[in-house]
Design brief:
This protein is of the alpha/beta class. 48% of the residues lie in helices and 8% in strands. It has 19 helices and nine strands. A five-stranded parallel beta sheet has the order 2-3-6-1-7, covered by helices on one side. Helix 17 crosses helix 18 and helix 18 packs across helix 19. The protein is extended.
Length: 412
């Protein structure tokens, strides 16, 4: 692009800056404007992504048609399909009339979908169909409608990571990303920061009829060293604060430092999870422990029930050998036979019950052996191989632990 053409675009849209990344973004926008290709603008929040779709629309054959900018993150999930694709009368409570939706109203024009990464999965499927063949069905309707809309989307979300987390459709990403445009963060724009400060200061002076604030050289250096996590939006807010609250019109580094936050703020591209790719290690260990304890409890219950059943059978077998009572002295069996109470003294101890080798049904396995083995290994590793401590952590006796170690071949 010629320098004069680029300067004309900047003057028309009040764009300040000369950094190479910004010029490249404007150049791509002007080259893609005459086409109908979908454009995906990527950049941090506050970098000015909303300027690019306006440039694309105004320099395209659709410039005389309608242009709508929609913030997808601000529309409730329950109504976003109706907002975008319309609805028919009576399709839901409050639908007193038919509505064409943005895709119907903007036919032949341009739609700017800001924060497209926040769209629900169901809405993403509808959007993909519109992008592929221009067809959509209103909410509650059965008739397929056609539309001819140019889509320009923007996001501050790391779409690649959103795809890996199952929050964004990969096929929709490739459909939207026919032409990518990367907007640079403010911290990478060098002296553009000072130029933007000067612009915002001049706007405040003209609006409120006050003297314009001016930066000293040391203040300019401080301004360019700051990382600006809020980008251009944050710079504008700070410039307005200084213009109103500072009694001095010449701003030194000392004065400027009182308005710039001193806390450590992230400057990375926004992501679904701040710690990077999600790890399920903790959840897996919790699940292992729950399943292991559940299995142990079920086995204990089965042993106790088996022992109790045996004691009841022994009592019932020995009862006929007793001297029969006269019929007039017979009492209900329940009052004469109390197998549980009378035979408790003959029950095996808890340690003896645990020592019994219990053969589990085949259907119980369900990979619990693998889970139990991993749980034992992790417990031993955490306790430096101390079996007693590992048994205490797992909530089982030493005898049970030794038996499990032998069962899993870990007793060597």
């Amino acid at each position: 692009m010629k320098t004069t053409e680029l300067q004309n675009i900047k003057q028309r849209y009040n764009i300040v800056g000369n950094c190479e990344a910004l010029n490249r973004a404007l150049d791509v926008a002007l080259q893609v404007a005459p086409t109908d290709l979908s454009v995906l603008i990527v950049g941090e929040s506050g970098v000015g992504k909303e300027i690019i779709p306006r440039v694309i629309h105004d320099n395209s054959p659709r410039r005389r048609e309608k242009y709508f900018a929609i913030n997808c993150g601000s529309i409730p999930e329950g109504t976003i399909d109706s907002e975008l694709f319309g609805h028919v009368k009576g399709s839901f409570t409050g639908a007193i009339n038919d509505s064409p939706g943005y895709f119907g109203v903007a036919n032949k024009g341009t739609l700017f979908l800001d924060e497209v990464g926040e769209l629900p999965m169901a809405t993403q499927a509808r959007l993909l169909r519109v992008l592929e063949n221009g067809e959509y069905i209103p909410v509650g309707g059965t008739e397929i409608r056609k539309t001819d809309v140019r889509i320009v989307a923007a996001t501050n979300v790391n779409i690649r990571q959103a795809i890996s987390e199952g929050r964004f459709r990969e096929d929709l990403y490739y459909r939207l990303n026919q032409v990518p445009i990367q907007m640079p963060p403010l911290r990478q724009r060098g002296e553009d920061i000072v130029l933007l400060f000067r612009l915002f200061a001049m706007q405040m002076a003209e609006k409120y009829r006050m003297d314009k604030v001016v930066l000293t050289d040391d203040a300019k250096q401080l301004l360019m060293r700051y990382k600006w996590p809020g980008n251009v939006r944050q710079l504008k807010n700070i410039t307005e604060q200084i213009s109103i609250l500072s009694t001095e019109r010449q701003i030194t580094a000392g004065i400027l430092s009182r308005f710039i936050p001193q806390d450590q703020e992230t400057t990375q591209l926004a992501t679904i999870h701040n710690e990077g790719e999600h790890s399920f290690e903790n959840e897996r260990e919790i699940l292992y422990k729950i399943l292991f304890e559940l299995r142990s409890n079920v086995n204990d219950m089965r042993r106790e029930m088996s022992t109790l059943k045996k004691q009841i059978e022994d009592v019932q077998v020995s009862k006929p050998s007793q001297t029969p009572l006269p019929s007039t002295q017979l009492a209900p069996i329940s009052s004469n036979i109390s197998p549980v109470n009378t035979q408790l003294s003959s029950f095996p101890s808890a340690e003896d019950a645990e020592a019994e080798e219990y053969v589990e049904p085949e259907m119980e396995s369900l990979n619990l052996s693998d889970l139990g083995r991993q749980m034992l290994e992790k417990a031993l590793e955490r306790n430096g191989g101390n079996r007693k401590k590992a048994a205490q952590e797992l909530g089982i006796s030493d005898r049970t632990l030794y038996r499990r170690l032998k069962q899993y071949g870990l007793d060597k």
